Amino acid sequence: MPAEKLAIGIDIGGTKIAAGLVDGDGNISRRLQQATVGHDAAAVLATVTSMISELGAGITVAAVGVGAAGWMDPTGSTVLFSPHLAWRNEPLRAELEAATGRRVLLNNDADAAGWAEYRFGAARKQSHVVCLTLGTGIGGSIVIDGKLQRGRFGVGSEFGHQIVVPGGQRCACGNRGCWEQYASGNALAREARSLMAVHSPMAHALRDAANNDPHLVTGELVTSLAAAGDLACQELIIEVGQWLGRGLANLAAVLDPGIFVIGGGLGAAVPSLIAAAETTYQENLSGRGYRPFAQVARAELGPDAGMVGAADLARIALAG
Amino acid sequence: MPAEKLAIGIDIGGTKIAAGLVDGDGNISRRLQQATVGHDAAAVLATVTSMISELGAGITVAAVGVGAAGWMDPTGSTVLFSPHLAWRNEPLRAELEAATGRRVLLNNDADAAGWAEYRFGAARKQSHVVCLTLGTGIGGSIVIDGKLQRGRFGVGSEFGHQIVVPGGQRCACGNRGCWEQYASGNALAREARSLMAVHSPMAHALRDAANNDPHLVTGELVTSLAAAGDLACQELIIEVGQWLGRGLANLAAVLDPGIFVIGGGLGAAVPSLIAAAETTYQENLSGRGYRPFAQVARAELGPDAGMVGAADLARIALAG
C-alpha cells in the first residue's frame, strides 16, 4: 500500500475521541484515544487537532475524515447539530483545515460506520445496504450502488426516529414512540427497571446485580446477566430483538435492501437479539412469500468501523 | 420532436387499461382506453397487444413502457406479483415483445407516476424526491439524483405497508396497522362508515347521501360531501391528512427528501387533506428546528402520470 493512500480517521463520541491511521484496505496502523471534554467545542477542536498532528507527523496523509454523532450538511463541511456536543451550525471542516493545514471531510458517525461495513465488512460488494448501529439508540446508514445516501439536507437514515408506537415512550428528540425507544440499549435498561419496579419474582438476579438500585441497571448489565443464563434478562433481549425486527420490516417496505447489517455495542454483542430480530422481520415483512428476504448480518468491524469509514470516505472524496 | 422519440405508455389498472403515444416532453398525442378483464391474464395480454398495434401503426416508436400495480423484478421483465391481476412470476415483458415485435419495459405503476412527476411535473429538477399516490391505498416511489430507486429486488418504496400502529387495522397485505389503513381513500370510507355505525348526529349528511347503507360510503362520497360543506366529512379528511403527515415525518427520518409529491385520486382532489398532512409532518419531524422542512406539493400530472412515466422510462432505458 503506497503511503499516499493513508488517511486519518477520527471518531468523536460522547465520551471518547478515537483516531487512527487507516490504509486503503481499511487496516489501522496507528491509533490514539482521548477523553471527550464534555460540551466544550473549543477543547474538542484542540484535542482533535493535536491528534491529527501526532498521527500525521513525518508521513504523507491523503485526507482526514471525521465521524461524529450529529447532522452534517451534505458537503461534509458543517455540523448542523450534535446531540452530545455543543455544535450548532459549526463550520468544523474549515476550523480543522485551518488548524491542521490538511483536507478534512465530516460525516455522521453511523454513516461512516455503515460505509466501512460496505467497503471492508459484512456488506462487501452488496448493491443495496442498510446498516444499523445499535447502542444506547439507533444509528443508521444507507449505501445504494456504492454511494452513501445522506438525503437532500444530509440528515437522512435516522431510522431510530421513525414513530412506531403513536403516543408511545417519550424520546430525547421530542417525539413519542420512536423506534429507538423500543429497540436499543436504553430500551433494554428501561424495561429491566420496569420489571424490577413491579417487584417481579423474575427479576431477582437483576435486583441482586444492581443492588436493588434502578440507576445501576444498564443495557450491558442485562446482556451480561442474560449471557450468564438469567431467563428474565434473556426474555428482555428477545423482546428488544422483536422490536428491532418489526422496524427492519418497515425499512424493507421503503428501501428493499439486499442486506441489513447490525452493529454497535448491543448489536454486535448479542446473537440472540439478532436472531429474534431476523425471525420477527421475516414474520412481518409485507409481501412475504412473493419476494426474497434480505439477509440480516452482524457487523464485522466492531468499534473501529466509524474511524475506518470516516478515513475511507475522506480519502475517496479528497485524495488526488 | 423527432418521431423516433415517441414511446408508447400503458397503464394497467384494476378496472381499466389506458394507453398513449408519449413524446420526449411528456406530451400525449394519442390515447386509447379499454376495460381490464378481471383476473384473466391472457385477455389482458391480448388487449394490451392490440392497443400497442393500434397506437404504433405506421409510425416509429422507440419503446413500449408498461406500468401496473404489482412488483416487477429489477430488470423490468417479470411481474413477481400483482394484487389486481392473476400474474405470479409472469414473464410479461417477453410475452409482449413476442406478441408485438417491440421492445418493452415493465415498471410498478407508482414508480412510473413518480418518475413522470420528477421529469415533467411537480418535482422537476429536484435531487431527492419522494412521491406518493394516494388512492384506495398508498403507492410510492423514490427518485435520487435522477435515478428511480426500486431496491435490491425491485420491490421497494411500498410506503403504505410500513406498520404505524402495532396491532392496528388489518391490511390486505396480511399485516396489521399498515400506514395505508390510516391514510388512504379506504381509510376515509372506513372511518365514515364507523361514524355512521355509532349513529352519530354528526353523520346525518353521510347517512342521507348513502341511503343509510354503509356499502355506499366511499372515499369519493366523503370528499364530495366535505367539498359541499359537511363538517363531519371535513373532519374525517383532516384526520386522514394527519395520519398522512405522521407517515411523511417517518419517511423523512429515513430518506430526508427535498420534496414530497402527493398524487392519486385522493391526494390530487383534496387540498385540505394535503394542508393537514403538511402541518402534521412539520409538527412530527424528528429534529425539527435543526433541519429544513421538505416541500409538500400536490402532483401536477393527474391520472396520466403512470402512462407518461412508463413511456419515458422505457424510452430512456431502451431507445437507441
TrEMBL record, chains A, B:
Pfam families: ROK (PF00480). Coiled coil: none annotated. InterPro entries: ATPase_NBD (IPR043129), ROK (IPR000600). Belongs to the ROK (NagC/XylR) family. This is ROK family protein. It comes from Paeniglutamicibacter gangotriensis Lz1y.
